[in-house]
Amino acid sequence: MSKPTTPPRHTLRAEEARHAMLDALTPIRGVERVAIRAALNRVLAEAVIAPFDVPAHDNSAMDGYAVRAADLAPDAETRLEVVGTAFAGKAFSGLVGPGQAVRIMTGAVMPHGADTVVVQEEVRVEGAQVVVPPGQRAGQNLRRAGEDLAAGRPAIPAGKRIGPAELGLIASLGIAEVAVVRRLRVAFFSTGDEIASIGQPLAPGQIYDSNRYTLFGLLSQLGCELIDMGVVRDTPDAVEAAFTEAAACADVILTSGGVSVGEADFIREITGRLGEVSFWKLEIKPGRPMAFGRIGSAWLFGLPGNPVAVMVTFLEFVQDALQKLMGVAPLPELPLFEAVCRDPIQKKPGRREFVRAILEGGQVRLAGAQGSGVLRSMSEANCFIVLDEAQGAVAAGDKVMVRPFRGRL
Ligand code: AMP
Ligand code: MG
Asked: What is the pTM of this model?
């Protein structure tokens, strides 16, 4: 990244900012081996290779009878001698000869000689014999060896975040330990002379710090290693000292507040002094100003101060940037859904707006007050209505695009 030659009031569309940011970043290095349970929510550093075929043997997909397809008359019933039983975990060790069948349970290994399973609901049992109706297909109701995974092939690619399905898959291969990317170290602090920490009495004009807590939640969900640096005063010296300390130990520095162009806003200036900075006025609402840059080997994301703007900019920009740094393989864009909006929304064309809303039964309505400091409506909402740059006002009954939070918050 080079020093910006454009003046600092650089206005970017959301997509331009996302791409500029993602293009600049490269994944961190560093791998550690962890026990399978500790791998939950971590990012796989190396592909998991199947050490054997899954399933290991041809086995029955149904409860029924293992038979030889060649024995079955195509147009008439076939009478076979039942010579034994195959259970899951307890195979039938003999051979199924001509005219013979073996009672078989779901998951049991196919006995030698048999190649087809007839489901039990379709047969008639008469003493030691079973009568199979016509119309069976050779090879039916089997799971083939290696059908799910072939030995030596990747079962899970590197770059995958390990969730419950991956844990089960790894366990099914008998693998006790996997290689994961080391945790991304994120140092974060709030700025502002008016910001008090929990436990301090509020002086007149002060408010409690909420951004460090929403960021704690968002970063924890991503599996980052957190370095909480508290609240930093609005002076150049305090911001510089915090940056220097953070850059020495973290991969990423994440701040909130102090990034506008007010007299107490030093994030941009100090980042420029210690490193390199791009300062963006984003064409989004809420969350207009944002700084992106580098101090030493640490990446800096300077988020706005308003609590909802912090969440919007984190979810829209920072989250994917951190995932890229963690080595997560790019994920498909989260889909937007169309829904009928029950409430009118005031908007002028120009910015992309994120409106806190409640989606219920294909309809969406506003979630309370939309001020960019109002976290309560963020808590009540289950989605954003995303109104694109060109969109104007929305009338009640109009269709809008909606992005649900689940999995994101
Ligand atoms: P700033 O960008 O620093 O001017 O902050 C914008 C608004 O967000 C101001 O009203 C701040 O009081 C508020 N704000 C900034 N940081 C925090 C914080 N950590 N927690 C709650 N509100 C904050
Ligand atoms: Mg401030």
From this structure: 0.89
